[in-house]
């Protein structure tokens, strides 16, 4: 024998007993579960399991002696063969029942089951064997109206015609055929790709389960029972029972199916077989308790006796998942920590937003990027002002724009959902949409946007006009015609309880990005630990303020500029006072003005004309100023601290507004404001701004006689700021990483322009993930690590955090915990997800 | 005495003798030079020097005993006091002559010099003492038409009126006043700022020199002699002599001044005092030889005897500087290495371009950024095509644009100079201008550009119309009216010799960025070691190609795209063949297409209309495509390798053109082409492009049966590529750092938009330098170091270099040498500068 040939192994064919060596990793989850049921002394029919290795050998042509398997069972029984993979989500071939059926068996069964029933069983076996094992044309073996004996004869004839051999009568030959067919199906390319898409490894194994079938006289049948609702997770006995059925046939909708519990809608198992029902309930409860999970129980009743054939996790909606986990913990079955770990954080997103009802018809007009989750229905409007008008009339509307800009914010607030032609996951519309919790589909270039003519052309040519009703599904990226049924979001007690438990173990803070009082209210509702990023630019785009802001931009002298800013001061102060009141003692981090000034100026002729009139200046001057301020690469232009240094009066005003609002807090625990300088690249920038902010604080203290505290820090958004963190940190109480911009600059890639090729890039595997979606640990992450390490060395007490889109994702939270950051900050609507993810990460090393 | 009070020091007043302790660092350069002259046994009048410390104490009010100084001289002599700073460029107070002059001395001198001359001497001393020491109103002490004795009486009276004390008659009092006045002048704020601007440290010291004056009867006078021309550096005795004059009066333009050598223009010292002339020539030659420098000698002749009062470095033009250094080396006075080190690399820039003649009148219309050095005169044109038309007619023209784009390149080639309204040192116009060696002024917002009306409005309101003649001075940033006199560039034998010597010691290669055959010719002329960056996009904007390129962009299918590219292939191949021929065996690094496609499309309606006609497509389709391709931040968009992956046919075509051109080389040493992938961020990008390029190479080899070699590498322009260099390097033969883009991304700052605030930022000290001008060692530099280290660890033989604007600057070369890079690449016109700078850096540790 050559050295590199594998040793021929003994096939691993194991009878399921309490002590047999069966494991999920070698025999699959179903096999292990059956062994657990056996250990619980539940009435499980005799079962034999084949290990992954054995099944793989079968697929490769090494069939073990099927007779040996049969020898584990009483002669003459019928067998059922089912798959058992490591994870039930990975799929697998369908079950094969009634293996062992033959003319001889049919005749024998006719005595107990009756002629017709016995013939029908044989017929069904021939049909499924022909199609699934012999791979014959399913059309030849369809169910017919013919009597069972006529149909059986036809099926046997068809089999023999096609296979040029009679239908196998030897149970061992049948069993071998079934095992080989299931083993090979698992190795098929499609099956492999499907399970790999669900996260299965390339070499995922399949176990097979051979179980004796229960077939009896009289009160025989099968069914499925579970003790909790798949929809809500509430306690509720659900399932069906069907006499003279096998497997899951009871769920097939036959007319003589029984409810389980007594039910006004029809007859029930409880009434028909009260003792069996009671036993079944006890078995189910025992399984729930001892398997520590809500189980869906597959059972048969044979002559009044209950057999448990299989148990699987109750399938569940995300909402039910939360409640099931909480109820198991409340019933003392699992510890709270485990309940916290049982819910996938991202699954919470669905609970926070309306959804298109699972069964509703979807008339798809076109698709785009699913940029902000949730669904909403409304009439189409094409301008922000039309959206505001609709909202004023109390009408739901969908704001449709080529792309959005800060001028559209009021309209986005007013709209039920937003749809744009351009942009990707990180476009303005997407970021703001997620922040507001407004469903949003962006980059919907399948549709043609004729915004001037106020219409959309669907991909099939249908025309959607201003005022027509459509539905945006921000969770799938679909634009739907009309108003499919939606289901409401739920923040029920189970949700709150689970997150409360999560908070008990969580060891990193979760703040919210919140720009407005509405955002702050949402942040409170989701119990954020504070505001991690308040973007002040949104405060300048409300109608009355925008005009003053523009006056400021057009000011010819420092005095004129200061006059305009003086008008903005009280408005800003009120903004901050509102935020402080809502956040009541929790920290609030305010970013000084960041965007380039041209974002505040109108881009089209009509609005420029209006502005010229408002400012009482010639139109030519307005257009010239707009042109002057236009930038080649606004992302890399005159913004952030550069603006603060060029026009220091702006930051002076903002600092004054913050301090005056701080003083104006009445009662309760006061907020200590945090002032954040954006787009820093060098120490000296921080030094200059800090000097002025400190001077403003001194001035306010002197003038008012009031004392107050504040913190000053920077947003680290440029690679250079990260590299120079050691210089910068000594001037800062905190450094917060703006990973959106940092990702843009590290990749040299604008999030607004990336949409054009990002999906192709990810599909081709050029990037493993969209770095605007999942933090790029290797590149951007290294800059974060460098900055954290250097910043801490220079200023050991510095507070570190990330804000920006990545803040809420579990991967980023994991990164931040490992790096020892103090908090993450994310959209208010992602706060619950982040709280849960953080808790799971804290628990991970304890559980494993 | 308190401990922290400084020890009172003995004043350091030293007689200049061969062995006296005099050093440049303590007494200044002039003092040290005089000691050297004494050591050479030259006839230097008795001289005493005061150290920096002593002069500082004088400024602080601690005057040493002036009598002690006087005691070093014979009684009754007149003294001259001159400054002696560490570096002559740092300035200093003017010399004071005739200290010790008084009524009594006047009377004594009248006997030897005559009444009038003696009176005149006294008068001049009173005048300069009153103005420079007593700080009286200069108007009161102007030269008058009056007879000397009348003027003297008036001056003495004016002094006494103002000072309320008679003019001091005691030489010690006079000397003390002069020393105090000069010491304090050095500490004045203006003087301090002026010298700091020239690089002097804050505590730069001043020494003072007190020298006995030569005053005699008969053939007495003074003058200045040098043995080389300040203009050309050629051997030529220059200078003047004036009888009965002092100091440098001979250079003042008096009518009875003498030439030194026999001269057809007038009488000479050689004729008047042949022996003294001969002695003077010998002294000058001795000084040149022993002081190892061309010296300007200040001398007096007293009764036929020559005295050497002072020697300073011959002032020199940059051109003369080169020749002087070369001649000193050729004469064996200094080693070649020292000659190489004596020329400031940046000074060469002036030699490579025409300049406005130093004395020419400058009628300034407005100023902008001096973006590409040199001066040019021509008629104003406002479009690239007008520039080409003018060039076709053989007329020099200045291309005036708001800003330039790749479409303007042909026009820029055709123009003598370029002027733009927008942009900074790194704008398109500036970069291309420097590359082409075309003088360029950008960001000239002092002027109003009315390009549609085809006129410029000067800052004083004058109108410059299409066709008017102006001059652009790209070295100063000035736009001048008319045609001031220009002087020609010189690449003379001295220049070539010096750079040849530089190459002998240089240990880092210098390549040129060259896109066209013209650029390559320039690179050869300046003896570049190869082409480090050939940007292929410039090859697509020539009229005939642009149309095909646009067809490619509008192609609906891969086949259509490939058809268009097939038309471009032979043109590209010819481009490369030309480059290879010109570079004859030197390496040529070709960057694959980099800019976003929209740069190739017209932006205005008229051109779009024309394009629609040319492509036979509706205008709406053209505008839609232009709109679709428009980007928010083109710098961070769909460009570089992203384009190469999205539309792989483009790089396929370019690779094919490169390989076919490689094969087509006939005779001579063949060029091994280097193919560079732009804007890389991840390993997989390189892998994908490399696979296709290798496949194209295999295809060309199979089809032609010819073999050839090539190298593939990447341009590292994104921070991420630098951080991930370890992953990327194994796929690359070389990595070249594109420091322009890397700086933009590291700072989050677009070079096109930075102009708006960069000068203010540098002035405020926010950034010590414009990082687009001087490589930012702390931020960008660290990324380079990280990448080099990781790249080398993964691929020890990898070739490292920088290309881009920083490539030619001495600071970057220093950085690259330290980091062990293989070459730098820069504009062809900077190659000589880089060669010299690199040589100096190689010599630095040896010389010190």
From TrEMBL, chains A, B:
The keyword Repeat does not apply. It holds the Pfam family PEP-utilizers_C. Keywords: Kinase, Magnesium, Metal-binding, Pyruvate, Transferase. Residues 495-841 form the PEP-utilising enzyme C-terminal domain. InterPro entries: ATP_grasp_subdomain_1 (IPR013815), PEP-util_enz_mobile_dom (IPR008279), PEP_util_C (IPR000121), Phosphohistidine_dom_sf (IPR036637), Pyruvate_phosphate_dikinase (IPR010121), Pyrv/PenolPyrv_kinase-like_dom (IPR015813), Pyrv_kinase-like_dom_sf (IPR040442). Catalyzes the reversible phosphorylation of pyruvate and phosphate. The lineage of its organism: Bacteria, Pseudomonadati, Pseudomonadota, Alphaproteobacteria, Rhodobacterales. Belongs to the PEP-utilizing enzyme family. The active site is at residues 428, 803. It comes from the Bacteria. GO terms for molecular function: ATP binding; kinase activity; metal ion binding; pyruvate, phosphate dikinase activity. This is Pyruvate, phosphate dikinase. Substrate binds at residues 535, 591, 717, 738-741. Mg(2+) binds at residues 717, 741. Its EC number is 2.7.9.1.
């Amino acid at each position: 024998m050559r050295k590199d040939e594998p040793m021929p192994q003994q096939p691993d064919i194991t009878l399921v007993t309490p002590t047999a060596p069966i494991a999920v990793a070698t025999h699959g989850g179903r096999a292990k579960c059956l062994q657990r049921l056996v250990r619980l002394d539940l009435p499980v029919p005799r079962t034999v399991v084949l290990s992954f290795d054995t099944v793989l050998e079968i697929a490769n042509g090494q069939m073990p002696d099927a007779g040996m398997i049969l020898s584990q069972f009483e002669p003459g029984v019928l067998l059922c063969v089912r798959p058992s993979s490591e994870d039930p989500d990975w799929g697998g071939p369908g079950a094969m029942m009634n293996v062992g059926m033959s003319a001889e068996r049919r005749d024998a069964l006719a005595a107990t089951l009756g002629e017709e029933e016995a013939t029908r069983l044989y017929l069904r076996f021939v049909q499924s064997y022909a199609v699934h094992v012999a791979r014959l044309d399913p059309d030849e073996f369809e169910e017919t109206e013919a009597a069972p004996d006529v149909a059986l004869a036809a099926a046997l004839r068809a089999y023999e015609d096609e296979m040029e051999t009679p239908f196998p009568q030897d149970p061992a030959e049948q069993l071998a055929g079934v095992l080989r067919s299931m083993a090979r199906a698992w190795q098929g390319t499609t099956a492999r790709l499907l399970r790999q898409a669900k996260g299965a490894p390339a070499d995922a194994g399949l176990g097979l389960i051979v179980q004796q079938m229960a077939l009896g006289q009289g009160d025989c049948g099968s069914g499925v029972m579970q003790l909790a609702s798949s929809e809500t997770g509430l306690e509720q006995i659900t399932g069906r029972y069907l006499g003279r059925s096998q497997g899951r046939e009871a769920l097939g909708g036959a007319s003589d199916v029984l409810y389980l519990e007594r039910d006004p809608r029809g007859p029930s198992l409880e009434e028909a077989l009260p003792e069996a029902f009671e036993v079944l309930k006890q078995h189910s409860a025992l399984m729930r308790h001892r398997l520590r999970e809500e189980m869906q129980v597959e059972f048969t009743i044979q002559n009044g006796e209950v057999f448990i054939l299989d148990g699987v996790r109750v399938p569940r909606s995300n909402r039910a998942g939360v409640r099931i986990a909480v109820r198991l913990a409340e019933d003392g079955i699992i510890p709270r920590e485990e309940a916290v770990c049982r819910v996938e954080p991202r699954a919470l997103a669905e609970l926070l937003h309306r959804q298109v009802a699972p069964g509703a018809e979807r008339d798809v007009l076109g698709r785009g990027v699913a940029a902000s989750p949730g669904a909403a229905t409304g009439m189409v409007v094409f301008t922000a002002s039309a959206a505001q008008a609709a909202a004023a009339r109390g009408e739901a509307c969908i704001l449709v724009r080529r792309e959005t800009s800060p001028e559209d914010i009021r309209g986005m607030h007013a709209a039920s959902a937003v749809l744009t032609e351009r942009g990707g996951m990180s476009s303005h519309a997407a970021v703001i949409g997620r922040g507001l919790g407004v469903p949003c589909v962006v980059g919907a270039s399948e549709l043609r946007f004729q915004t001037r003519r106020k219409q959309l052309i669907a991909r099939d040519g249908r025309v959607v006009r201003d005022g027509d009703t459509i539905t945006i599904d921000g969770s799938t990226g679909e634009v739907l015609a009309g108003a499919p049924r939606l289901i409401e979001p739920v923040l029920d007690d189970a949700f709150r309880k689970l997150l409360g438990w999560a908070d008990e173990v969580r060891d990193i803070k979760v703040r919210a990005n919140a720009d407005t009082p509405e955002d702050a209210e949402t942040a409170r509702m989701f119990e954020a630990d504070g505001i991690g990023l308040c973007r002040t630019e949104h405060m300048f785009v409300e109608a009355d303020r925008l005009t003053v802001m523009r006056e400021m931009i057009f000011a010819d002298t420092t005095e004129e500029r200061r006059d305009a800013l003086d008008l903005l001061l009280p408005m800003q102060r009120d903004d901050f006072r509102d935020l402080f009141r809502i956040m009541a003692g929790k920290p609030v981090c305010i970013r000084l003005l960041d965007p380039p000034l041209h974002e505040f100026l109108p881009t089209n002729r009509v609005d420029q004309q209006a502005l010229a009139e408002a400012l009482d200046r010639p139109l030519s001057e307005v257009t010239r100023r707009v042109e002057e301020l236009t930038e080649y690469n606004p992302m890399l232009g005159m913004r952030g601290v550069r603006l603060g240094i060029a026009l220091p009066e702006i930051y002076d005003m903002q600092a004054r507004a913050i301090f005056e609002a701080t003083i104006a807090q009445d009662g309760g625990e006061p907020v200590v404001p945090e002032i954040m300088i954006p787009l820093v690249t060098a120490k000296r920038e921080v030094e200059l701004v800090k000097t002025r902010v400190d001077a403003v604080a001194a001035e306010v203290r002197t003038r008012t006689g009031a004392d107050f505290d504040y913190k000053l820090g920077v947003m680290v958004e440029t690679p250079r700021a990260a590299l120079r963190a050691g210089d910068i940190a000594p001037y800062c109480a905190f450094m917060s990483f703006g990973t959106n911009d940092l990702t843009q600059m590290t990749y040299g890639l604008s999030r607004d322009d990336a949409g054009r090729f990002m999906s192709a890039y990810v599909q081709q595997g050029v990037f493993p993930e969209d770095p605007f979606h999942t933090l790029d640990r290797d590149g951007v992450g290294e800059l974060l690590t460098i900055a954290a390490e250097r910043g801490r060395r220079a200023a050991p007490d510095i507070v570190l955090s990330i804000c920006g889109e990545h803040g809420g994702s579990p991967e980023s939270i994991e990164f931040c915990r490992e790096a020892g950051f103090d908090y993450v900050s994310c959209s208010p609507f992602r706060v619950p997800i982040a709280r849960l993810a953080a808790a799971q990460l804290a628990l991970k090393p304890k559980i494993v």
